[in-house]
Amino acid sequence: MIVRNAQQVCTQARIVLNGVGTQVIRCHLTEKALINQLVTDPLTLDASLGALHADMPSQQQPLDPFKCGRQVIPSVLPDADSTGPVGLGIPKLSSKLLATGEAKYVADVPPIPGMLYGALVFSTQALANLVQLDTLRARQVAGVVDVVTAADIPGTNAIGDGLEPLFVPLQGQVLYVGMALGLVLATSASVAQHAAGLVVAEYTPLQDDPFWTTDAPITTVAMARAAGTLVPSTPDQPNPIPMPGNDDHVDEKIATAPRQLQGTVSFGSQRHFYMEPQASTVYPDEDRCYRVETSTQNPTGVQAAVAGVLGVSLHAVDVKMKRAGGGFGGKLTRCNVNATAAAIAAHKHDVVRVSTLWSFGLF
């Protein structure tokens, strides 16, 4: 069958069946039903199936008891509710597992022999250059196996969320407090966390940066208004984030309204307070493949990020996401930090699990 890719129209068709009768069958009627038809149209499928039924030899037609696979039989439940399940208290399928504590999360899976634990080293300054990362004291702690940094990344130093690096390289820009600088590997999670606190980073202020400034950061709409940096929506430059339900004539309608209310509504910032901290475990597999067990809202994004830092194809990364203990957006992209850090460490060593403490889990 030849289909024009742009129009999705079948221009030629030849259908031959074998093994369904005493001889090879050429389905002329089915071919005719497909030619010059849109192959993605459900009506084309219905017509071609009807023609195929006519093309089949009569002795091959199924008996009545076996026609259910070829007939559409409408079925209406006698107690069908046109508004259901709205308003019904239907429990979540896994609610009993969750409520009883039987549900297992990424960090609950028993460790295998030889598993290493990673603790991320986070920046303590913002808008600075990273000039030195002293890992000597951390490496001297009993149980510490390695300290992984940007120099150990075989692929692209990016977490898949724009151009943000997984680990800030030396002489690289530290844009915010809590940016990952490296990963301490140890034989236990407690040792890794302790050693991560012993890593000392040396910074210098950003100089003559064309984008970042040393002024106080603008963190609210009120501050943006006062500084004159709030970008208004204009005909030449519309709001970059259009909201659903926008009306281009709001001002005119308010002006002609019989009653007008005036005031201010303020909303505070949002914390993605999920119950389960960020956690990922990466298992090296055969043929340069990796299995990633992670708590995420975006398995596809984790797959792309891990493949990028490792320098492998997407098919080499198998992401398993059984459940996320809450997310609210916080596990949409930030989970990439744990997953990619664990992947780099697993690439150098063996199975690695990385869990982020709550003190840094809300960035």
From TrEMBL:
The Aldehyde oxidase/xanthine dehydrogenase a/b hammerhead domain is annotated at 100-207
Record SMART domains = Ald_Xan_dh_C (SM01008)
Record's SUPFAM superfamilies?
Answer: CO dehydrogenase molybdoprotein N-domain-like, Molybdenum cofactor-binding domain
Q: Which GO terms describe its molecular function?
A: iron ion binding; oxidoreductase activity
Q: Which InterPro entries match?
A: Ald_Oxase/Xan_DH_a/b, Ald_Oxase/Xan_DH_a/b_sf, Ald_Oxase/xanthine_DH-like, AldOxase/xan_DH_MoCoBD1, AldOxase/xan_DH_Mopterin-bd_sf
Known Gene3D superfamilies for this protein? Answer: Aldehyde oxidase/xanthine dehydrogenase, a/b hammerhead, Aldehyde oxidase/xanthine dehydrogenase, molybdopterin binding domain, CO dehydrogenase flavoprotein, C-terminal domain
Q: Which family does the similarity line name?
A: Belongs to the xanthine dehydrogenase family.
PANTHER family noted in UniProt: ALDEHYDE OXIDASE 1-RELATED (PTHR11908:SF132), XANTHINE DEHYDROGENASE (PTHR11908)
- Indicate what this protein is called per its UniProt record: Aldehyde oxidase/xanthine dehydrogenase a/b hammerhead domain-containing protein
Organism encoding this protein: Aphanomyces astaci (Crayfish plague agent)
